[in-house]
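Morning!

This is the sequence you dropped in the shared folder:
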Amino acid sequence: AARARWQDGQMISPDGIHLALAVDLDDALYLPVLRDCDQRTSAQLQAAIEETVALLSRQMLPPDRLAGGCMALSNLGMYPLDAFDPIIFPGHSGILALGAIQRVPIITGEQLVIRPVLRATLAVDHRAINGRLAAAFLTDIKQQIEEII
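The structure's back. C-alpha cells below.
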C-alpha cells in the first residue's frame, strides 16, 4: 500500500517504490521522484538524491522525473527541529517527515547514555494505508535506519 498513489479517483499500485523527495529551491517546492528505491542500496540512494538535486537546481531535470511518486519524503534535518507534522501531497499515499538528529540522554538498563535520536512522523491517506500498515511501515523504516547508523 505504501507504493500506491491516487490517480483519476482510483488507487494505482505500480511495480517498485517511487519516492518523491521534497526539495526547496528558490522558494519553490519541487517533488522529484527517485524510482525503484527498493532496488537500491543506501549509498546508491544517496548518490541518486545528490544527482537529482543537482539537476533540479540547474533546471536540467527531465519533466518525467517530477511525476509518478507514490509517497513523499520531507527532511528538515538541516533546521533545529526534532519533528514536524507533514501534509500529504495530492496523489500520494503518504509522506514521511524526518527532523534533525538530536543527541538525547537515554536510560539503558541502569545507565544513562547519550544517543543520537531521529524523529520520524508519518501522515497517510487512509484510503491507501490504514493505521496498522502505517505502524508496520514506520517500524520497518526504524529498523533500516538503525542498521545504517
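Headline: The chain has a mean pLDDT of 89.

More detail when I'm at my desk.
O.
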